[in-house]
Amino acid sequence: MEPGLTVGEWWQRWSAAQDLAPATLESYAQQYRRYVHPRFGQRALAEITGLDLSEFARDLREAGLAASSVTVVLSVIRDLLADAVAEGLIPSAPPLRLRHRRTGAGAPVRPGVAVDVETVLAVCARLPAQEALMAVVALFTGMRWGEVCGMRRQHLHPPGEPGGPDGAWYRIDTTRGAVHEDVHARRFFGPPKGGAGRVIDLPGFLADLLTEHAANTGGRELLFANRRSAAIRHTDFLTRWRRACDGSLMGAAAGGAAPDALAPICLGLRFHDLRHSHKNMLVELDVPEILQDDRLGHRPPGMRIIYAHPTPAMREQMIYGLEQLWADRGKVQVSP
């Protein structure tokens, strides 16, 4: 045992030994640097009690941290302590008893929202063309922010290419298919969430929009990039996204006496909600669950992953339905 070993010293040894996906390890590191180290970094592992952890959880909640985020932070310190026990550094891990006031009925702090195509197109009309196209991609593919932001020209395939479906498709790369950001907002490429790539069938209209967009990017590899041809910073995008969704006060026009209000379209809408919306679209189109899971990158539960498989007929029917949604709901200018 090492009774004088501090949490900070153990973190250095522990984090260096983890064999985790880069995004997962960075998430642990962010929670540790922001919350765990300031509170426990200089404390000896053997001194931490269950009461210390309960008070820590209470203080995080009172500081305004969402319940889901509190859970993630606590998982870091609990994993550190549990592995310290496994290594024989401390005799046991302190229990964590979370007793606190219930302010709701157990509802998620930030539940997902599903919106219709018209709502998203209205938001797109307020965004720069590139970012409007990113939103349309997310809505009609269910791809995550990091996956859309990390799209590359080489993985965009026109209809009829070998190695994929009959129609147009995009391959999310297993090793570098998504953009991630560290605590300092530095961007890096790594595996998509779940660690596995996948093929995304593209409706014809979306394949056309992406092909046109790719042709107008000057030959760069990233389909979506900032002015320096680097991956888009999430906070930069979020500023424009929030204004497009929530509305704002516009500057006064030349000679005008007062600013004009930009009316909200969908308050609080997140880019990730486009993924929820795509899931709803698939349900409404009666897409089989096994194809929904395949498209969204979910691992099917139970025996479904063994005995059920997406078929070309399933994919063709899904693409037809998505095409009809686009044709029936109108269009917005999203090309460069």
CATH domain class of the largest domain: Mainly Alpha
- Assign the CATH superfamily of the largest domain: Intergrase catalytic core
| Helix coverage percent | 40-55%
| DSSP E strands, number | 7
Order of helices and strands: HHHHHHHEEEEEHHEEHHHH
Low-confidence stretches: 250-258
Q: Structural class of the secondary elements?
A: mainly alpha
Mind describing the biggest β-sheet? 3 strands, antiparallel
Total count of domains: 2
CATH level 3 topology of the largest domain: hpI Integrase, Chain A
CATH architecture of the largest domain: Orthogonal Bundle
**Ends apart, CA distance between termini:** 63 Å
**Average pLDDT reading:** 85
Radius of gyration: 23 Å
Q: Judging from the principal axes of the Cα atoms, what is the shape?
A: elongated
Compute the number of helices.
13
Strand line-up of the largest beta sheet: 1-2-5
Strand share of the residues?
Answer: 5-15%
Can you give a write-up of this model?
GO terms for molecular function: DNA binding. One of its GO terms (biological process) is DNA integration. Keywords: DNA recombination, DNA-binding. Residues 5-85 form the Core-binding (CB) domain. InterPro entries: CB, DNA_brk_join_enz, Integrase-like_cat_sf, Integrase_recombinase_N, Integrase_SAM-like_N, Tyrosine_recombinase_XerCD. The protein has 2 domains: 7-86, Orthogonal Bundle (DNA polymerase, domain 1); 117-251 and 259-329, hpI Integrase, Chain A, CATH 1.10.443.10. With 336 residues, the chain is mainly alpha-helical. β3 (178-181) and β4 (187-190) form a beta hairpin. The protein starts with 6 loop residues before the first helix and ends in a 7-residue tail after the last helix. It is built from 13 helices and 7 strands. The model is unreliable at 250-258 (pLDDT under 50). The radius of gyration is 23 Å and the shape is elongated. The protein has a 3-stranded antiparallel beta sheet, with helices on one face.
